């Protein structure tokens, strides 16, 4: 039965699904304690990952935020978050998988994000 399911998917959707599953595991390991099981955030301390407008507008910055951390005040849903996010020394592939998960979970549908895109975005970090 699984063979029939996968034969109906494109290679890109199979890759996106694999990234999503691996990204979910990385999210649980590194992010869930602060951002919540459903990306809801942690009260006044940690912003939610459920704001589709923010996630789309800042998608090219996500790799930089994950890799280098973040300490600039941030406004989401009209609420200012001033906490510091630690840096995570992850490989580009892990960052890509994590980004696929957070930009396709929590109500988002932003598609694929590759490790090549991570490398490009990391070169442009501000």
UniProtKB/TrEMBL annotation:
Gene Ontology molecular-function annotations: electron transfer activity; heme binding; metal ion binding
SUPFAM superfamilies, per database record: Cytochrome c (SSF46626)
Record keywords: Heme, Iron, Metal-binding
The keyword Metal-binding appears for this protein: yes
Pfam families: Cytochrome_CBB3 (PF13442)
Iron in keyword set: yes
InterPro entries, alphabetized: Cyt_c-like_dom, Cyt_c-like_dom_sf, Cytochrome_c-type_DH
Residue ranges of every copy of the Cytochrome c domain listed in the record: 18-106
Protein name per the record: Cytochrome C oxidase, cbb3-type, subunit III
Organism annotation: Pedobacter hartonius
């Amino acid at each position: 039965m699984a063979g029939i399911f996968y034969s109906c998917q494109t290679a890109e959707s199979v890759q996106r699904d694999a990234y999503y599953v691996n990204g979910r595991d990385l999210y649980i390991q590194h992010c869930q304690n602060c951002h919540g099981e459903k990306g809801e955030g942690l009260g006044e301390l940690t912003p939610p990952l459920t704001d589709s407008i923010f996630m789309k507008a800042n998608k090219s910055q996500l790799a930089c935020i994950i890799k280098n951390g973040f300490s600039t005040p941030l406004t989401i849903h009209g609420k200012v978050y001033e906490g510091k996010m630690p840096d995570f020394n992850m490989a580009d592939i892990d960052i890509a998988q994590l980004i696929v998960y957070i930009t396709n979970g929590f109500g988002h549908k932003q598609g694929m994000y590759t490790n090549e895109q991570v490398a490009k975005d990391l070169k442009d970090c501000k």
